[in-house]
Design goal:
The chain is mainly alpha-helical. The protein contains 12 helices and no strands. It comes from Emcibacter nanhaiensis.
Length: 256
């Protein structure tokens, strides 16, 4: 994508900044992007099923007729927004993985923690759009394939990193890839129950043991490390809950 920048927080803020920067020179391009921005705002707050074309045009300050110059219907504009959103997530994930690998070749925990914290923070900043991913993959096969491919590529990068750092242990790529998928599914389900469709019981537990995103990333990263990098050293200075989790894991290892 020309003029690409990586998504670190809100997609809506990213798109707003892109429009305001003067990146789009033609009036038609700017009009189309403003409609996308209006759609993104409504997807974030209302979701795909509740959003109407009238909501988009009202937010953008244009007539319904102007909308149909650029998009066929709400499905068309939604797919334009959501494809760009997930592609940004993918590119940002690639960037995060590459930087972490280069900067922390001897510290797998910091690499994993950075990636998990980014997942949590970017997810929170785009909670409504993350919900829309679930809504749209259920209805749009092409979009579902895009999301599946994005996830697969991410898990494959994790697998290659784990195999490299565990060289000589006899691990196979398929086994490690399955582990990466399993850990990813854990992250997705926890995020869904914490942010997208809050589970009050789980939220109460997390509020007690991991009151910040950084603390939550620590806990989750200990699980990732135990599975994918069992020989890695976990740094000092983690939260009490993180230390308790490490102690429980070590006790389990000793019992075995």
């Amino acid at each position: 994508m020309e003029g690409y920048s990586f998504l670190e927080h809100s997609y809506i803020e990213w798109l707003t900044s892109r429009i305001d920067s003067g990146f789009f020179k033609k009036k038609g391009e700017r009009s189309r992007e403003r409609l996308k921005l209006a759609a993104a705002r409504n997807l974030e707050t209302k979701g795909y099923h509740e959003m109407r074309v009238a909501d988009i045009t009202h937010d953008a300050g244009v007539s319904d007729g102007a909308f149909y110059v650029y998009f066929q219907d709400k499905r068309d504009v939604t797919l334009a927004v959501m494809k760009e959103f997930v592609e940004l997530l993918e590119k940002s994930s690639e960037n995060s993985t590459e930087k972490a690998s280069q900067a922390t070749s001897a510290a797998p925990f910091e690499m994993v923690r950075r990636q998990n914290l980014r997942y949590i923070s970017v997810g929170r900043a785009n909670a409504g759009l993350m919900r829309c991913i679930l809504q749209i993959t259920d209805q749009e096969a092409e979009f579902d394939r895009l999301v599946q491919k994005m996830n697969h590529d991410y898990y494959l990068r994790i697998t290659k990193s784990a195999l490299k750092k565990n060289e000589g242990k006899g691990w196979t790529e398929d086994t490690v890839l399955f582990l990466a998928y399993s850990l990813g599914a854990m992250m997705d389900e926890l995020f869904r129950r914490l942010v997208i469709q809050p589970d009050k019981y789980l939220c109460a537990i997390v509020a007690e043991i991991a009151p910040s995103d950084a603390a939550l990333a620590d806990l989750l990263s200990i699980i990732w490390i135990r599975v994918l990098y069992p020989s890695a050293v976990v740094p000092e200075g983690l939260s009490r809950s993180a230390k308790e989790l490490m102690s429980a894991i070590r006790s389990s290892d000793n019992a075995a």
